[in-house]
Design a protein that fits this description.
The complex is a heterodimer of chains A (256) and B (289). Helices cover 38% and strands 26% of the residues of chain A. By secondary structure, chain A is of the alpha/beta class. Chain A has a six-stranded mixed sheet, with helices on both faces. The radius of gyration of chain A is 18 Å and the shape is globular. Chain B has 289 residues and is α/β, with parallel strands linked by helices. In chain B, 25% of the residues lie in helices and 17% in strands. In chain B, the strands form three sheets. Chain B has a seven-stranded mixed sheet with strand order 1-9-8-5-4-2-3. A three-stranded antiparallel sheet of chain B has the order 7-6-10, with no helix packed on it. A two-stranded antiparallel sheet of chain B has the order 11-12. The chains are: A alpha/beta (256), B alpha/beta (289). Chains A and B meet through helix 2, helix 4 and helix 5 of A and helix 5 of B.
Chain lengths: 256, 289
């Protein structure tokens, strides 16, 4: 089986400081990979390198494209990479404001990706937008409201709908539950888990919240100071941490 | 006349603008940056159009200026007199007699010929500007032909108003490549953008020149189920009776009285001279206007 994403020795330096270095892994279709670590550990840098928002200094990110099989996204041309970015890839930002157009209605936000890949039938675009708003539990009569009129949780769900409408195969998520209160977080995680399972999505989730990866991720990478210090199955890493830092991380979670 | 270089601008500046115009004609719809000069009029009054006109005018040209279709409004009169004074060219109000026509927000009703040049005054040349504020990003979108965002605007129109409510500066795709803002002409004029004359667009404050060569394909963006429609007031001109021209609506009293008249004053006058009379019009008299 070919991996969907093959990451090989990715490194990104900020001057003399290390962003992330020596990261390699394979992601297979349908698999969810979690990346955890404290602030400044390089997990967001890594995610941005993978998603093409940052150019890594060295290494390769090979994606299994529909047409030509494995292609290195670091060296492919920008139009091709941006095309991937609005078809096979999706990126869910921590702050919904970064991923949404705040002055465009919810329907327009969901429809944008469809129109970007040349959908030109208003009725069909609107139909799909209504369908997707339903799937993320936003009622149909809010379709013409702007995201500014939505709560934080709704904005985040709208962002997810907007990203998944073109049927991507790989979703990058940067702290998707950050800044939401626990009950909204739980609903969102439930929704995400359902969508990921139902659509057979692969996902890479960056978070500092171990509960999120316990719930969503099949595999886990723990990062510290730009290095991957431990990787393995989620339950294995969380229940039997080997590295001192992972042990610290797991034991730092508050028990209620 | 001898106090000014021909057509106000110095020769080096005119060469620079001509190079931008030629590049614009070579890449229809592409916005060419140029080093816009200070002109003796405020931004928003047609500084871009004036510079383009100055660069294309020759002493043999006949010049016409219209402002929203009219030959006799402040903007049109002042720019016409500017070139009378600085270039000494002949001026006219007759669309058919002019070789260079500078326009603000209209295309003349009479079809232009291959030996005529239409110069547009453009306030904001970037069609994506109100959707994407970053110039870096919009340039990238043009170069990668990522125009989905333009349809988002039309989508918003339909979802809010039930129809594409954009009625002027309606975005077009030129020769299947660049999306272009045709300047704030009413969308009634959009079909006329495929014409025999050369069309040059000058934006002075924004320092951009772009062009549409003769007989270039210009398609107004739309949806399959909401096709583009060139709309006008559903009325005939009250002065000349024309039913095919773009109309201005004029409030004439405090009791709800109104009249519609051609926005293209030369077209209206020509028809009235030929004996056409509208519902509220009087037969044409030479000194009445």
């Amino acid at each position: 089986m070919t991996p969907l994403l093959q990451v090989e020795n990715i490194a990104k330096m900020y001057g003399a400081r290390i962003g992330c270095t020596d990261v390699s892994f394979d992601l297979y279709p349908g698999e969810v990979m979690g990346i955890v670590g404290e602030s400044g550990s390089g997990k967001s840098t890594l995610l941005n390198c993978l998603a093409g928002h940052l150019t890594p200094d060295s290494g390769a990110v090979r994606f299994d494209t529909r047409a030509e099989g494995l292609r290195d996204t670091v060296t492919m041309s920008e139009p091709e990479r941006r095309m991937l970015g609005r078809t096979d890839w999706a990126f869910v930002h921590q702050h919904a404001r970064d991923g949404l157009r705040m002055n465009v209605s919810a329907g327009g936000n969901v429809g944008e990706r469809l129109m970007a890949v040349n959908a030109r039938h208003y009725g069909e675009i609107r139909g799909k937008a209504i369908d997707w708003l339903g799937r993320v539990e936003i009622s149909e009569d809010r379709i013409d409201d702007r995201p500014t009129a939505f709560s934080g949780g709704m904005q985040q769900r709208l962002q997810i709908a907007r990203n998944l409408v073109t049927g991507p195969r790989l979703v990058f998520m940067d702290e998707p539950t950050g800044g939401l209160d626990v009950s909204v977080q739980a609903r969102l995680l439930d929704l995400l888990r359902g969508l990921v399972r139902e659509m057979g999505l692969s996902a890479i989730i960056v978070t500092h919240d171990l509960a999120v990866v316990r719930l969503l991720a099949d595999r886990l990478m723990v990062m510290k100071d730009g290095h991957v210090i431990e990787a393995g199955l989620t339950d294995q890493v969380l229940d039997d941490p080997q590295h001192a830092y992972t042990q610290l991380l797991v034991s730092s979670v508050l028990q209620v | 006349m001898s106090d000014y270089n021909f057509a106000y601008l110095d020769e080096q500046t005119k060469r620079m603008i001509r190079r931008a115009i030629l590049k614009g004609l070579a890449i229809p719809g592409y916005q060419v940056p140029f080093a816009s000069r200070e002109m003796p009029m405020p931004y928003g009054w047609g500084t871009g159009g004036v510079q383009v006109s100055a660069a294309v005018l020759t002493p043999d040209d006949t010049f016409k200026v219209i402002d929203q279709g009219a030959d006799d409004t402040t903007n049109a009169v002042s720019i016409r007199r500017f070139f009378q004074k600085t270039a000494g060219v002949a001026v006219t109000e007759e669309t058919g007699e002019a070789s260079v026509i500078q326009t603000r927000h209209r295309i003349p009703e009479a079809a232009l010929r291959e030996d005529q040049i239409l110069v547009y005054q453009v306030p904001i040349p970037e069609p994506l500007r109100f959707l994407e504020p970053s110039e870096v990003e919009t340039r990238k979108m043009h170069s990668l032909e990522e125009y989905g965002l333009m349809h988002v605007k039309l989508y918003e129109d339909i979802s809010q108003h039930g129809a594409i409510a954009t009625s002027y500066a309606y975005p077009v795709k030129v020769e299947g490549r660049y999306v272009m803002d045709p300047s704030p002409i009413p969308k009634f004029d959009n079909p006329k953008l495929e014409m025999a004359g050369i069309q040059l667009f000058g934006a002075g404050r924004e320092q951009r020149i772009y062009a549409v060569p003769p007989w270039t394909r210009v398609v107004s963006l739309d949806f399959e189920d909401y096709p583009f429609e060139a709309t006008k007031a559903d009325h005939a001109c009250d002065l000349c009776g024309a039913e095919d021209s773009y109309l201005d609506e004029l409030i004439v009293d405090d009791a709800g009285g109104r009249m519609f008249m051609c926005s293209d004053t030369n077209y209206c006058a020509t028809r009235r001279k030929a004996g056409h009379v509208g519902a509220q019009g009087v037969p044409y008299a030479e000194d009445a206007a």
